[in-house]
Amino acid sequence: MFGYYLDLAWRSLKRTPILTGLMVLAIGLGIGACITTLTVLHLLSGDPLPGKSGQLFYPQIMPDTRSKTEPEAEYTYIDATNLLREHRADRQAIVVSAKLKVFGPQPGARPMSLSTVATTTDFFPMFDVPFRYGAGWTAADDDARARVAVISQALNDKLFDGVDSVGKSIRLDKWDFRIVGVLQHWRPVPRFYDLYGQGGFAESDGVFIPFATSRDLAELGIQGNSLDCWGQLADQVHLENQPCVWLQYWVELDTPARVAAYRDYLVHYSAQQRALGRFQFKDKPLTALRGLMDWLGHNEVVPSDVRLQTWVAFGFLLVCLINTVGLLLAKFLRRSGEIGVRRALGASRGAVFAQLLTEAGLVGVAGGGVGLLLALAGLWAVRRSPTNYAALAHLDLGMFLTTFVLAILASLLAGLLPAWRACLVPPALQLKSH
Amino acid sequence: MMEFRPILSALRRHKLAAGLLVLEIAVACAILCNAVFMIRQRLAQMQVHTGLAESGLVWLMTDGVSGDAATPVTERNLAALRGIAGVQSVATVVSLPLANNDMNFNPSMDADGTRRGPNVQLMLGSPGYLQTLGLKLVEGRDFDADEYAGMDVWMPQSSSMIITRALAGRLWPEQDALGRTFWIGNRRFRVIGVVDHMVRGELRGTASEYVALFAARPASALSALYVLRTDPASRGRVLREAADKLMALNPQMLINDKGTYADLRDGYFAGDRAMAWLLATVCVALLVVTALGIGGLASFWVAQRRKQIGVRRAIGATRRDILRYFQAENFLIVTGGVVLGMALAYAINLLLMTHYELPRLPASYFPTGALALWAIGQLAVLGPALRAAAVPPVVATRSV
Fold first, then answer.
1. Burial of B18 (0-12, 13-18, 19+ CB in 10 A)
2. Is the entire prediction scored with pTM above 0.90?
3. Residue A287 and residue A70 in contact, taking contact as beta carbons nearer than 8 Å
4. Minimum distance, in Å, between the CA of residue A19 and any CA atom of chain B
5. What sequence ranges are listed for the domain MacB-like periplasmic core (chain A) (predicted)?
6. Position B357 pLDDT exceeds 80
């Protein structure tokens, strides 16, 4: 039966090429705009670590006395290292980054400026970071303030032609570091772990070194990008005892019970710090423990313009749809005679309805095709735009399927009212006038 | 003037189709008004006056010099850059307006720090930087040579500062700012001059010009960003030669970025420009789709009413009457859409105001939007209406 409806629909659409073309164009334009903006939104609001993000949390405490309603987003050195030492989560890591001057092994070569992350040993297993050669450093390396480094695959390709460079050395500013690991290509989007450093859509990091080592070599200047101080600084290079928040801190908590326990721990820790005279609060300390996706939302990682664009696109689709409803109505009612004859010959209302919806769906499929082409053109334009996520804007299989699902759904929706209206055509009246 | 009553009673027989058209025009009108408003907002923001004499300015962002070598090496580099033909003046600064990178503080208005001022950007530069940037002093004086003193990492040792007129007005409204002081931590600074305009690294609405300028000799924190003033025609050459010279003098220096000030400004507004283009594209597409919708439905109605048109022509209506009928019908429908659309536009604007910090839609948008949609409607209906007018009276006598 469906095949017969398709055949009828095809014949009917062929009979009015201009009207059909208008409808296909309208749906195509609307779908193209929506898919372009949805792809960008999907990219920017995606889960950077699917399967793992549910166990990753960003704890927050309130170390300073500035009256606020929200705990600090970053940590002082004292609090971050306290939490790290007390080791109450399944895994935990301090994260801070900066752009450093990196020298390769070739003598006389010009240095490069690379994003460098100072962190602690758990970073690699906690974030499921894949290694091509070697592995991350150990807790012993952290304690010993070892001059070891993990480098990215891109940097390894550039400096060592992609061969195993474990054991070789690179220079960061004035200091040599021994390479212990080389990453397999790793670029989570958004770059969730360092929102307060290089940001959510910065280029991927080139080098990773132990946090303790970066403090040992304070002149490297790894202080993140949003140093926030609330008192007079005695020393602006050695921030260990200064009233400043500048570090990020991540924990992995594998069960809901551990999550609840960690919440209590943050309150308990704050109370303990108050007893030591460091924190000040009245009844309850300001603390928070946000999951990874919640943390991204809280920090508004998706630019507001991208959301606005998506709204505009859907508004446009709405106009295109109303337009299509009008045109379909005109098209179906013009065929009142034909519908009357079919009804008189025994076709049920349902059959006529199904046939007309098939016709609307066929318009949707064609509109989806046009929309897909327009979305590809739209994404090409996005890639040429000067935004920092531009290069990542590609249509994946999911969005490809979404295009057609959305187009067919939209056209069926647009077809409902006209098809229903056309079903109401009384058979006898139509026959009489002919 | 045309009689509207018969048109209205005819439309009543096409409630559904006419209603859809009204709805489409209403939604289109609401989106158009808000989109055009947002485009104009973005364009207005892009016109911001930075306070700099922008046309002859070029800049080079290096990785800076650390340690004790910072002062001598940077001063040597500045001297070398000054020697390039066509360079009028050179300085190092900590940041530039619209560079998306700034250092901020909250001044204390009294010695014990109980009364805090608003968030202010800390601007700092090496000797002569006000002139290099082209900032205009309106009160007081520029820094003296001896006020360009040393630095304690980020803080200048000299206690003299120059503030923008906007900051002066905020801190000491309707008073003379010269000679007034505030504290940063336990350091006290005194206003010696006021500049007309200067915006921050990042625009922040009414606080965009809250900037305090300080003076220092080049030091580690003041060794990365070089600005050069030249005449606009030789910007490209000066930029190339400056980069070559810095690289030759400092084999290990990194030049992370460089360009004219116009490049930097373009970069800052790139997102706004892209958004404005996108909105403009949507507006055009909306108008086209709406016009096609109006035209398509009008064509259908003309085809459907051929017989009635023939009857009207046969009993004496002129071609002009028929043409006018369809034009008037379209005018009525568009008017309905515009009225509904204005209400919708206002509602959307209210939503945007709460979520995107957009100001209220000015009332002038309503008549302009109505005029635009009437024009589009008339244009779209003209073809079908002419076709209707061409229907010969003889159609009335034929049976289908």
1. buried
2. no
3. no
4. 7
5. 20-264
6. no
